[in-house]
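Exercise (ungraded).
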Amino acid sequence: MSNKKFSFEIDKKSNEAPLARVGVIHTPHGDIQTPAFIPVGTKATVKALSVEDIKKTLGQAVLANTYHLYLQPGADIVASHGGFAKMMHWESEIKNEDGQLEKVCLPTFTDSGGFQVFSLGAAYDTGVSKIATSAQLSAKQKQTTDDKGEVKIKSSKTQMARIDEDGVTFKSFINGSYHRFTPETSMQIQHALGADIFFAFDECTSPLASREYQISAMQRTHRWAKRCIDEHKRLGISSATGEQQALFAVVQGGAFDDLRKESAETLGAMDFDGFGIGGSFTKEDMGKTVKSATENLPEGKPRHLLGIGEPIDFFLGVEYGIDTFDCVSPTRVARHGNIYAPDGKINITNAKYKNDMSQISNDESSPYYNYTKSYLHHLFKAEEMMAATIASAHNLYFLIKIVSDIRQSILDDRFFEFKKSFCDRYYNGKY
RNA sequence: GCGUCGGUGGUAGAGUGGUCAAUUACAACAGACUGUAAAUCUGUCGCCCUACGGGCUUCGUUGGUUCAAAUCCAACCCGGCGCA
C-alpha cells in the first residue's frame, strides 16, 4: 500500500508553443515524466516483449484494455493477482527502509472499452480505422448524393457491438457470447484491474459518421461520463490494489472544432483527474481538432491523446497541449516487419535487406540496436519469434525516444527547431 | 531385358479433348496497419504490349490424330516399383 496520491505538476510551459508543457504525473506506483509515450499491453502483455524489454524501451507505464481482460482471463482473476501490473510483473525492485529489496508496481493505465464500441461496432469489417483518409471521406460524402463513390465503404451487417442509451452489447470475439457494458460495469471492471489511470466509458465514433451522429454520440458520452464519476466515487479505492485511482474523461466531437470545444468544456467542468482526447479525425486536421479540445480543458490536469500515433502526431499533439500518448502501431507494425528508422519507416522483410550488414539502429541505447538488418530480415523470413521481439522493442524505443526528446526540446526552448530537424529527415521535408 | 506406374509453371500437387497461361498450397515480390478480433490482411506472381483489353510461348522430347491437345496415339528420353 502506498500513501502516494495521484497528482500532476507542470514544470515548464513552452516559450514557443503556448499550449505545450513539460510536467510529471505522480501516481501511487511512480511518476511519469511528460510528454510521454505509453506502450500498449492490451491483454496485460506488450505483445512479444518481456517486462525487461519494456523497461529497456524506457516505457514509463503500460496501458491495458478493459474489454479484453474482462473477456479473458476475467476481471476477478486479475483482481486476485492484485491488479494487472502485479499480474504481469510490471514492477521494479527498490530497497526499502530496512535495506531489503522490495518489488513495487509501476504506473499503469486501462482503456475503458470505449474503443471497442467503434472497432467492433461501426468499424467492424469495414476497413475503416480511426484515422480516416481523405479518399474515404470524399467517398462517404459522395454516397449521400451519389451511390457510386470510388472508394467503397462497406456497411457492415454483422457488427459485434450495439449501442443504446444505457450501454453497449458486445459479442465476444473469442466465443461469440454476448456481454453487456455500461458506464457502471466499465468502472467496476477497471477498479478490479487496478490501473493508476483509467478512462470513462465513451463511444469512439467513426471518422465517417455525420455531424448529427457525432453530436448525439458526444452528448451520450457526456451523460455516460457523469455516470462514470458517480460509480467511481461509489466504488472508492481499487479493490485489487487498495489504491486510489485517477479517472480521465474522454473528449469526443469528431473532427468538428465547435463540438470538441463543447465536449472539453462540458467534461472539464466535471470532477475528472485528467482527460483523454478520443474519437477520430483525418490526419490533416488532427492538430487543430486536438487544439480545440485542449485549449478548452482545465490547464492543470493532464491530457492523453488516445490511440495516437506516429512521429508527426507527437509533435502536433505536444504543440497543442498533449501530455501522454498511447498507440498500438509501433508493436503491430513491428510484428508485420516494419521498423522505424531516422529516414522513415522501412520494411525489413524487403529483399534489399537480405544482405544488409548495417545495424538496425545507430542508437546504442536502443534495446537491440546491434543486430544487423540482414539478421532481422532473416528472423522475419524464418518466422522466428525473436523477430517480433526485436522489432517491437526497437519501434517502441524509437517512438518513446522521440517524445522524450520533444520533452527535452521544450525545456531547452528549441521545440520547433527539433521538430524541423526531425521532420526534414524522417518525412523528407514534409510537415 | 520384360512388365508396370509416372514425368505439369521456383517447390508440392490438381487438371486427363475445347470454359487452361493452367485449381490450390507453399515459396517469392510488394503494399496496408494509429485507445490491438491483427505473429494479421491485401495485391502481384510465363513473356510482351497502346494493358478491367490484346499478342506470343508453355504442361519430358519429337512426330501424329483432331476444327481444337497439358489432356488421345506412336517413338524416344528420364524416374519409381515388380520380375528376371
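Further reading is listed at the end of the chapter. For now, observe: Confidence is low (pLDDT under 50) at residues 144-152 of chain A. Residues 1 and 242 of chain A are 7 Å apart (CA to CA).
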